[in-house]
Specification:
One of its GO terms (biological process) is monosaccharide metabolic process. The protein is an alpha/beta fold and 438 residues long. It has two domains: 5-139, Rossmann fold (3-Layer(aba) Sandwich); 153-437, L-fucose Isomerase, Chain A, domain 2 (3-Layer(aba) Sandwich). It is built from 14 helices and 18 strands. A six-stranded antiparallel beta barrel has the order 10-11-16-15-14-17. Strands 2-1-3-4-5 form a five-stranded parallel β-sheet, with helices on both faces. β1, α1 and β2 form a beta-alpha-beta unit. It is elongated, with a radius of gyration of 25 Å. The model has no long low-confidence stretch (mean pLDDT 96).
C-alpha cells in the first residue's frame, strides 16, 4: 500500500479570462482528486482570485499541515497568489497548468500555461526551487509518489541493532545528516535485546510450522530450526513493541557466534510479511527499501552486485540467503541451508522469480545524498548456488552498469523491487537537490 499523504490544492484565476469555465473545471477536479489513493485532500471550495483569498487559502493549508501543495493555474492570474501560498506553507509545490480550451471568438480562454510560467519564474527568482511544472488535465501521480517518499522517510522509526557489519565502512551513516536531510532519527539497540526478547512458546511453535511449510528444512538440524522459529518470533515482536518501521541488523559476526545461527532465514520469512529488514547494519539500505515501499512497490529487498558475465552480458544479484521467501521462482526447491559461518549460517536458498526490476540506492557521500536509479529484468536460471539470487539483464552493457556503481563509489547494497518505479525518484531528487546516478 502506498504511503498516505495530506495534499493541499488551490486553483488560481483572473476574471479577465474565462474564469467561470475554470470554476467548472475546478469543481470537477476536486471530485476527481477526492478519489486519489491514500490522500487526504485539503482545498478551498472556490477559485482563488484576489490576494486576500490566497492568504485565507494559505492559512487553511498551513492549519491542516499539508505535506505538499498543487497550485493549479485555472487561468492566468496575479503573480502574488502563488508567492503568498508558498511563503506561508513552505512545502514542495506542483505548478499545474491546464491544457488550453478551444478558442472562443478568437480569444485565448485560460492562458494557463503562461500562469504556470509566471509562477515558476517568480518562485525560482525568489529562491524557491522545490517545484515541478506540468501541463495536463489530471494529477501527476509521479509527483504524488515523490511526496509519499518524503513523508515515509521523515515519519519513519528506524532502528539499528548492533552496528554495521565488521569492516563495512561504506555502510556507515551520519545520524544528524540523516536527520537534517530526511527527518530520520535512528534508534540504537544492542544485539542482546533481540537475542533475549521474550516471546510466547505458542508463537515460536506457529513460526516453526510456518517455516516447515515454506521451506525444505531437511538441510538443518532440529535445534537450528527451533532457533530460526524463535528468532522470527523475537524480531517480529521486537519491531512491534519498539514501533519500528525498519530495522538494520548487524547480522555477523556476533549473531552466529552468540545466538547460534545467522538471522538470514528469519529475515527472509519476515520480509515476505512486509517487514523492512536490512542486513549488515545498512541503515541507508533500509531507507532505500522504505522509499520503494512508499510508492507502492511490494516486498523490496537488498542485493549484492555479485557477478558479471561479459560474454553473455548479465549480472548475478545475490545475497547470502535473505531475500523475501514470497519472491521464489516457483520452480526450484526453497530450502534452508548452513553453508557458511561454520555451519551456523541458516540461510534461505532459492532462485527469485523473473520479471521487470527497479533498482534504488539512497546513498550518502561527503555529507551529501544521491540516488542510484536503474531498471533491469530478471530472467530464468537454474538453482546453482546457495543463498538467494537472480540472473539479471540490463538495457545497456553490464560492464557499463558496474562502472557506474563503482566509479561513483555507491555502496554494495541496493534495494530492488518488481515493476517500474523510476520517475518518482527523479522528481524527489529535484525537490531535494540530490544528484542522480544512473
Amino acid at each position: 500500500m502506498k504511503q498516505h499523504i495530506t495534499l493541499g490544492v488551490v486553483c488560481l484565476a483572473r476574471k479577465t479570462y474565462d474564469w467561470k469555465t475554470a470554476g467548472e473545471i475546478w469543481k470537477k477536479l476536486r471530485q476527481d482528486l477526492s478519489q486519489l489513493e491514500q490522500v487526504t485532500l485539503v482545498t478551498p471550495e472556490d477559485l482563488v482570485i484576489e490576494v486576500e483569498e490566497a492568504e485565507k487559502a494559505a492559512e487553511l493549508l498551513a492549519e491542516k499541515r499539508v505535506d505538499a501543495v498543487a497550485i493549479i493555474s485555472g487561468t492566468f492570474h496575479l503573480g502574488h497568489l502563488a508567492l503568498v501560498i508558498a511563503k506561508q506553507v513552505k512545502k514542495p509545490i506542483l505548478l499545474w497548468a491546464l491544457p488550453e480550451l478551444p478558442y472562443d471568438g478568437g480569444k485565448i480562454r485560460l492562458n494557463s500555461v503562461c500562469g504556470a510560467n509566471l509562477n515558476a519564474s517568480n518562485l525560482y527568482k525568489g529562491g524557491i526551487r522545490n517545484y515541478r511544472v506540468v501541463v495536463r488535465p489530471d494529477m501527476d501521480q509521479d509527483w504524488l509518489d515523490a511526496i509519499r517518499v518524503r513523508i515515509a522517510l521523515s515519519t519513519a522509526r528506524v532502528g539499528i541493532i548492533g552496528y554495521r557489519a565488521h569492516g563495512f565502512f561504506n555502510l556507515s551513516t551520519a545520524d544528524l545528516a540523516l536527520y537534517n536531510q530526511l527527518g530520520v532519527l535512528v534508534d540504537h539497540f544492542e544485539l542482546d535485546e533481540v537475542f533475549s526478547y521474550p516471546v510466547p512458546d505458542s508463537e515460536v511453535a506457529r513460526r516453526k510450522e510456518q517455516l516447515q511449510q515454506v521451506f525444505d528444512v531437511s538441510g538443518i538440524t532440529g535445534d537450528q530450526l527451533d532457533k530460526v522459529a524463535a528468532l522470527s518470533a523475537k524480531l517480529d515482536a521486537f519491531l512491534t513493541a519498539k514501533r519500528l518501521t525498519a530495522l538494520a541488523i548487524r547480522c555477523w559476526p556476533e549473531f552466529a557466534a552468540t545466538y547460534g545461527i545467522s538471522p538470514c532465514a528469519a529475515m527472509s520469512l519476515l520480509q515476505a510479511e512486509d517487514r523492512i529488514l536490512a542486513c549488515e547494519g545498512d541503515v541507508e539500505g533500509a531507507l532505500s527499501m522504505l522509499a520503494h515501499r512508499a510508492v507502492g512497490a511490494e516486498t523490496p529487498f537488498l542485493f549484492d552486485f555479485s557477478q558479471i558475465d561479459l560474454e553473455q552480458n548479465f549480472a548475478l544479484f545475490w545475497h547470502c540467503g535473505v531475500a523475501p521467501c514470497n519472491l521464489w521462482d516457483g520452480r526450484c526447491v526453497r530450502s534452508l541451508d548452513t553453508y557458511f559461518a561454520g555451519g551456523k549460517g541458516v540461510t534461505a536458498d532459492f532462485v527469485l522469480k523473473s520479471g521487470d526490476l527497479s533498482i534504488l540506492r539512497l546513498d550518502s557521500c561527503d555529507g551529501k545524498f544521491r540516488l542510484l536509479l536503474d531498471t533491469a529484468r530478471a530472467v530464468p536460471m537454474d538453482k546453482l548456488l546457495k543463498g538467494t539470487y537472480m540472473k539479471v539483464v540490463f538495457e545497456r552493457k553490464v560492464e557499463d552498469v558496474l562502472a557506474t556503481v563503482v566509479n561513483n563509489g555507491i555502496a554494495h547494497h541496493a534495494s530492488v523491487v518488481y515493476g517500474t518505479y523510476v520517475k518518482p525518484f527523479e522528481i524527489l531528487a529535484h525537490i531535494e537537490g540530490w544528484e542522480i546516478v544512473k
